[in-house]
Amino acid sequence: MNPPPVEIYRTPDTITIKLGHASTGHDPEGQLSLACQAIEPDENLRVVAELEEGTWSLEQGFTQLGQYLDLLGTSMIDFGCWESMTVRLPQVQIPYYYSRATELPVEALHSLRFLIWHGHRQQMVSSWLPFTPSLLDQLTSLNIVTDLSLEDCARLLSHTSTLMHFTAKTIRWSGDTTILTHLDRRPPMVKPRLAVICITSDVDLVSLLRRFQLPDLTHVAFDLSFHTSASSFASLGIAWHKLEGVSLLCDMTDMDAMRVRRQCRQDAFSFTHVSGYPHR
Q1: Which of 42, 66, 170, 180 could be stapled to 200 by a disulfide with Cβ–Cβ 3.0 to 4.6 Å?
Q2: Is the backbone of residue 240 left (phi > 0), alpha (psi -120 to 50) or beta?
Q3: Biggest CA-to-CA distance, the chain
Q4: Residues 221/199, Cβ–Cβ less than 8 Å
Q5: Dihedral sign (CA 181, 184, 186, 189)
Q6: Which residues contact 108 (CB under 8 A, 6 or more apart)?
Q7: Could you give the count of Cα atoms lying within 13 Å of 155 in the half-sphere of its Cβ?
Q8: φ, ψ of residue 35 in degrees (nearest 5)
Q9: What are the CA-CA distances from residue 177 to residues 83, 153, 157, 174, 198 (Å)?
Q10: pLDDT tens digits for 4-46?
Q11: Residue 278 confidence (pLDDT) above 60
Q12: Long-range contacts made by residues 19-28, C-beta under 8 angstroms, separation at least 24?
C-alpha cells in the first residue's frame, strides 16, 4: 500500500501534521521545517497530530505520524517547548511495535500541560505517546474520546496531581475491566486542584467519583445514556451547592430534576431531558 498523503500547516502558535486525504506537497520534512521557522523559538507550542482512515495502511501511517512528531521535537522545535498536544486517531485498533526510534521521550515533554486525545483505547498503551504516570502527572487538562471503563478513568485520575480539567467520553463498562494495567490501582484520595469534570457515560458513576474527594470542584457536566434519579446524583459525594456550573443531559423525571436543582445555585443548573439518546 502507498503511504498516506501528508498535510502540514501552521498558525502563529500551532503546528499541525495530518496524514490523510489531502497533501501539501512532496517534501513533508521540508514543509515541516519551513512551518517551524515562523514559530517563535520560545513560544509555547501547540501540536496537532492526526491520522485519517483510507486506502493506506493505518499501521504504516501511525508509525509515520510518530516519526514526524519525533523529527519535530528532536530537530526543529524542542519537546520542552510543547505545551499542548491534540492527537486524533481512528477509532480502530492499530498494530504498533515498540521502538525507541518512534516513541516520544516523555521526560523531554516537561512543559506539556494540555492533552486532547481521540482514538482506540488500545493506543493509550500501544503508541508513540503511551499514557505513563510521568505523562499524566504533569497535565493540567486531559480530554479523552475513546471507549473506557470506570476502572480506566479511576486509574487515570489517580495518577494526576496537577489536573484541573478532566473530560472523558465515553465510559462503556463498569467493574474492573481496564486497558491501563500498567497504572497501579490506588486507594481513595483527595484531588485538590480538579475543578472541572465532564463525563459521557453508559454506566453509573458512583463507584468512580466516590473514590475521590474534590474540594475545589466548580463545574460538572454529565451526559448519561441511562435512566437516573436525584438519589443517584446525591450518592456521588459532590457538594452541589458550591458548584458554579451544573449541566445534566440524561433521562430523569422532572420531579427528580427539581430535587437536584434545589441542591444547586439557582443560576448554575442546566438540565436537558433525553430519551433514546439520538445525540450520541
Answers
A1: 170
A2: alpha
A3: 62
A4: yes
A5: negative
A6: 73, 78, 79, 80
A7: 20
A8: -65, -35
A9: 32, 11, 16, 7, 21
A10: 999 998 988 999 999 998 888 888 899 999 888 878 766 689 9
A11: no
A12: 19/50, 19/51, 19/52, 19/61, 19/64, 19/65, 20/50, 20/51, 20/52, 20/54, 21/52, 21/54, 28/68
> Of 219, 256, 218, nearest to 235 (Cα)?
256
Q: Are 21 and 5 in contact (CB under 8 A)?
A: yes
How does pLDDT run across 242-268, given as a tens digit for each residue? 999 999 999 999 999 999 999 999 899
- Distance linking the first and last C-alpha atoms of the chain: 34
The Cα–Cα gap between 65 and 51 comes to 7
Look up residue 164 and give its amino acid. Answer: M
